[in-house]
Amino acid sequence: MKRLVLPEKISDELAKAAEELTLMAKKPISQSMAINLLIEVYHAHLNNPCALDAFSQQLKSLNIMTPEEFDKYWDEPSKLKMAKRKTKTTKKPANEPKGI
């Protein structure tokens, strides 16, 4: 088995997709099974020549990030949330008026 490291946001989306597929199938669907099903849907969609051409044209026109930029982009919101959690808030003195 090979391990795949995913940005946290993508991993969360994959977990949600596996849960949704589990509800639809009324059978357990693991994350790796969900990836397999999503790839199968991708292949089925691209077997349509019109869909393949439209998708190819769309990809060519996109300003696609590098893999490093993509990982940083998806991980950045999670890092910001974690930093906020770690930052301790200071309490105002009891005699200080609110709003200051």
How far the N terminus sits from the C terminus, by CA atoms, comes to 57 Å
Strand content: under 5%
User: How many whole angstroms does the radius of gyration measure?
Assistant: 21 Å
Uncertain parts? 90-94, 96-100
| Sequence of secondary-structure elements | HHHH
Keywords:
100 residues; 67% helix; single chain; 4 helices; mainly alpha; disordered C terminus
Give a description of the structure.
With about 100 residues, this protein is an all-alpha fold. Helices cover about 65% and strands about 0% of the residues. It contains four helices and no strands.
Short overview:
The chain is an all-alpha fold.
Topology:
Layout (H helix, E strand, L loop, with lengths): L7 H18 L5 H16 L2 H13 L5 H20 L14
